[in-house]
Amino acid sequence: MxxxxxxxxxxxxxxxxxxxxxDPYPLYARLRELAPxxxxxxxxxxxxxxxxxxxQVLSSAAWSSDQRNARTRAERLASRGIPGGGLSAGLAQxxxxxxxxxxxxxxxxxxxxxxxxxVAALRPAVDDMVDDLLAPAVADxxxxxxxxxxxxxxxxxxxxxLGVPASDNALLTTWTLSIASMLDWIIPEDRFRAAGExxxxxxxxxxxxxxxxxxxxxxxxLSIMVHAQEDGGQLSxxxxxxxxxxxxxxxxxxxxxxxxxxxxxxLRHPETLARLRDDPDVADPLVDELLRYExxxxxxxxxxxxxxxxxxxxxxxGDQLVAxxxxxxxxxxxxxxxxxxxxxRTDGKHLAFGHGIHFCVGAxxxxxxxxxxxxxxxxxxxxxALVDDDPEWQPTATARGLVSLPVTV
Length: 409
Fold this sequence. Notes:
Shape: globular
CATH class: Mainly Alpha
């Protein structure tokens, strides 16, 4: 058992293990059976794979999201000559890595841009963006779902939300793809340093936008954050900048990755694709089932604030644990026929958007983009087909997405 566990540990978190990246779910299943909560020598932290254990950790105030309490990663980076402490300090200013009361304060400001009314008002703009991206595909005879649709759509939406000129969307794309590397557990030094450079460039870009919004406020999230800062000091300058970084990276990755993996899943389940084409009402349950079946965010880290127990294992104060949402969302103790893609299922609530106070603030917007994007793909291209049924997966364990997905129309 010890040797098998060590083998799974190494494979699961090796970004270059093509077998594990293509299909991690058999490894997850074996872990749920063999050691549902175990210490990973690869990561230097605990790993939880069962739904009940992951849900417990994500729901409890005894577990912290604050990266300043998570020293393991900083120590590992420092051993390689990379300043992880500075990274942790920066991440601590995003609500994704905050605990109350700071998390409550920042989320209240950001949440103003994601009310049901504001999200619904974005629908015509999202429709237009989808149309602009898909229209050329007919003449071209096909396109890459990832680079020509899945990536530019959420970038355009978040750019509009922040008030970024559409002419700068290509810049946002470059920064997004680079900065997102920082969220992975194991990355090469050159990618980490490149991400740091991209982060600095994006922050300088945002500072220029902030200066403009102070003089000329608009109806956008950046204006909301700038004037919340001025009116009541609700966001520090660092929090404002890092919130923009969070929206650019984590705010885009869910939609970006699921538009690709969702298209692949639908093409592998043609009967469901046909239902979506014929019945737009299928889009809502379809999106949630895709989120469960191919969770874009596979792993969610937390740090124990006190001695505790998870899945019968004693966890010491200060230890880190990663809840594997991708494994929890395939747990047969929570979902009937968990490995089956089924848009009619009514059991269980997936953890793809997290749980508790850190439930994704932009979940409604992500669902809107996915409903419109996948629905229009299905309706517009009745002959949509894969060029390659075995596409390349991204070399990352924390997120689940494709490098590319060429299709014909």
